[in-house]
Amino acid sequence: MVTNKVLLKTANEALEKGDIDGFLSFCTDDTEWVFIGEKTLKGKEAVKQYLEEAYTETTLFEYQCYKF
What region holds the SnoaL-like domain (predicted)? Predict the structure, then answer.
């Protein structure tokens, strides 16, 4: 069984490589990306458009997974 931590790590590795479509393969069509106090991206296409504009350079992510 694949854990959430592994899924998150794999998705973020795609972004680190500049593979936006690879990252989006982990998102559902009705995904929402919330920037608290700023904006909310609704849908895979909105996230893709944002990533293509904002991620012009390779980005390194650090993340922590919490069990709820």
Answer: 12-56
